[in-house]
Design brief:
The protein has about 450 residues and is α/β, with parallel strands linked by helices. It is built from twelve helices and 15 strands. It has helices spanning about 35-45, 55-65, 90-110, 155, 160-185, 205-225, 250-255, 280-290, 305-310, 330-345, 370-390, 435-450; strands at about 70-75, 115-120, 130-135, 135-140, 240-245, 255-260, 260-265, 270, 295-300, 320-325, 350-355, 360, 370, 395-400, 410. It binds phosphoenolpyruvate (PEP) and cobalt (II) ion.
């Protein structure tokens, strides 16, 4: 429903891609040379876009359907992409796990699933402190490969504007290969065996997954052989990209005007991170003028309505996805307040649960991890609260890897604190590994069956 009180024409108002510059911008790097920064931004501004406005509009339409209860959003990928992990194998495995999870979700929900990766641009990270101190030495914090380098020495940590170009190129490489794989048949539902990544250790998980495969193959054969419908559409799927729109000069440089609307053409679906949602801040100002669908992380319900009024004065269908990430302990208390406030305003949003970012813990030896049980618990609570408030939980936002990493504790393969050292690869937050991700998909599918 459109906002009865708004007029479409006034919404963009005095906005321009650079109007955020008059507001306080959190989490931005300090480049030592403005001249070099401008050179890099000009170069970025001339490169071809990564995505098109019609793909963006198509996604917005699908998100609107999800908000209305007719689709489910699966958003997942790395916490932070890194240049060294921009490899063919990583791209393939990530697509495979997203396809496997979405198959499980489609089967469970009997609804189309919107697949959105956290990739092809997820290179900038917010930090809780501007600096990092080790053994008495203090240097600027690592802000992701878009900004500086991870090694703890002075020259690595100086923000380097050239890295924006390197990141953009890797985003293009990632997207190019992803599109080729998806178009070239990897996503063909007739051959889900191509999505196998490796051995599933837990027998029940393997059995349940193969039953789902059998049932989908059977339905497909029935449709084609008995009903005579050739399911060509099943050979292809849509896969959209998303990243946190954190580094504003970078995002501004890739924002272009088309048909009187401004699109951020570096990604289909940018989101505002939890640390940059201030209604008076530069990020909200920048996002307000974009025509893309927008995700917003919510950790504190308080200022959310004000931000929604700024970002979406017209109540455009599919415009805003609220990604709540309260943590397993706080969700029961905070989510009902948020839902009631948004419902009370009359607008419809897509509700999405991020069960990762409110559940990060540090082990006694200083390793950042998450407990699988906390992740499941936040998801379960999320479904419960939405059910009792009469709203539809229409999406999930996960940090996951298609590889056999050991970053989160628990799950089917029983990863312990001692196992973390074995294959901990994330540069920032701990991700679900392949098997844990599939297990989460099964849980969601069970819950969706009853919605
Ligand atoms: C993230 O998604 O990696 C992130 C930093 O999340 P949040 O903004 O919710 O803390
Ligand atoms: Co993260």
């Amino acid at each position: 429903m459109l906002n009865p009180a708004a007029s479409l024409s006034k919404s963009a108002g005095d906005w321009s891609p650079s109007s955020w510059r008059s507001k306080p911008a959190a989490q931005q790097p300090n480049y030592p040379s403005d001249e070099k920064l401008q050179i890099a931004l000009r170069a970025l501004g001339e490169l071809p876009p990564l995505v098109t406005s019609w793909e963006i509009e198509a996604l917005k339409g699908q998100l609107a359907e999800a908000a209305a209860g007719r689709r489910f959003l699966l958003q997942g990928g790395d916490c932070a992409e890194s240049f060294v992990d921009c490899t063919g194998a990583a791209v393939v495995n990530r697509i495979k796990i997203l396809l496997q999870m979405s198959l499980v979700l489609v089967h469970g929900s009997e609804k189309p699933v919107i697949r959105v990766g956290r990739f092809a641009g997820q290179y900038a990270k917010p930090r809780s402190s501007d600096n990092e101190t080790r053994d008495g030495a203090t240097l600027p914090a690592y802000r992701g490969d878009l900004v500086n380098r991870k090694a703890f020495d002075e020259s690595s940590r100086i923000p380097d504007p050239e890295l924006m170009l390197r990141a953009y190129e890797r985003a293009a490489l990632t997207l190019n290969y992803t599109r080729a794989l998806v178009r070239g048949g990897l996503a063909d539902l007739h051959h889900p065996e191509n999505w196998n990544i490796g051995f599933i250790q837990k027998a029940e998980l393997a059995t349940e997954y193969s039953q789902i495969l059998d049932s989908v193959s059977h339905a497909l054969r029935f449709m084609e052989n008995v009903l005579g419908v050739h399911a060509e559409a099943m050979q292809r799927v849509d896969l959209f990209t998303s990243h946190e729109g954190l580094h504003l000069p970078y995002e501004e440089a890739i924002t272009r005007q088309e048909n009187d609307r401004w699109y951020n053409l570096s990604t289909h679906f940018p989101w505002i991170g939890a640390r940059t949602t201030s209604p008076d801040g530069a990020h909200v100002e920048f996002f307000r003028g974009l025509a893309n669908p927008i995700g917003m992380k919510v950790a504190e319900p308080e200022s959310c309505l004000r931000v929604l009024d700024i970002l979406d004065p017209d109540w455009e269908p599919g415009r805003v996805t609220l990604i709540h990430r309260f943590g397993a302990e706080k969700i029961q208390e905070r989510l009902p307040k948020l839902i009631r406030a948004v419902k009370g305003s009359g607008r419809q949003v897509l509700w999405c649960c991020d069960p990762m970012h409110g559940n990060t813990k540090t082990t006694s030896t200083g390793i950042k991890t998450r407990h699988f049980g906390d992740i499941l618990s936040e998801l379960e609570s999320s479904f419960d609260v939405h059910a009792s408030e009469g709203t539809y939980l229409g999406g999930v936002h996960l940090e996951l890897s298609g590889d056999d990493v050991t970053e989160c504790i628990g799950g089917a393969s029983g990863i312990t604190e001692q196992d973390l050292a074995r294959a901990y690869k994330s540069d920032v937050d701990p991700r679900l590994n392949y098997e844990q991700a599939l297990e989460v998909a099964m849980l969601i599918a069970h819950r969706l069956r009853s919605v």
